[in-house]
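Justification of resources, computational component.

The compute hours requested in this renewal are based largely on the per-chain cost of generating structure records like the one below. Each record pairs the submitted sequence with a full structure-token output. That output is archived, and it is also reused by downstream analysis tasks.
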Amino acid sequence: MSFTIRIHMAHAKNAALLEGALPSEYSVIRATHASAEDAHSFDLCVLDYKQFLQLSPMLFAWKSKTAPLFLPFLLLCEQKEYPHLSPHVWEVVDTVVTMPVSKAELVGRIRMLLRTRQSSIECSQLAQELEKHPPSVEQTVSDSKDLLEEILEISLELSDILAPNLQKNEKKLLNKIIELSSLDAHS
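The structure output for this chain reads:
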């Protein structure tokens, strides 16, 4: 799957540096504005603290618009900004990376968030498929009856073959299996 990363940085130079650090396998949108319609246009949003403060209501809107899918947000902040992050940051941001950061760590965090996004998409698709084509109760019951009839048949054969050599408790157990199988198979 091809992923799209949306970048919101207060300074164009930082956005260019970030884009240059990303592997070429990702499509990148260097955004200068945000609207509610943008919610389905990307798989991960990377932003700095200034852009977070400015776009916070839009980020919440994007999260709710794409729910229940996981739409990750990675916040880049300077060491001095980190202590000032408010608790509501964690309602929308999935991970915070303090700068400066190594390219390896940044790319690793991005890959982790995108793997989680991919899993979320796959789970959603599976759930939709199950809603469209749920296993039928009739088929499940029919399969169960077939299985019980096979158990009954095998149990009867075992009873005929092994009866002389079975101990008392083994005979009781086999008779119980035959009894239960015949009741359920014919109901």
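Residues 4-132 form a domain with the Rossmann fold fold (CATH 3.40.50.2300). The longest strand covers residues 73-78.
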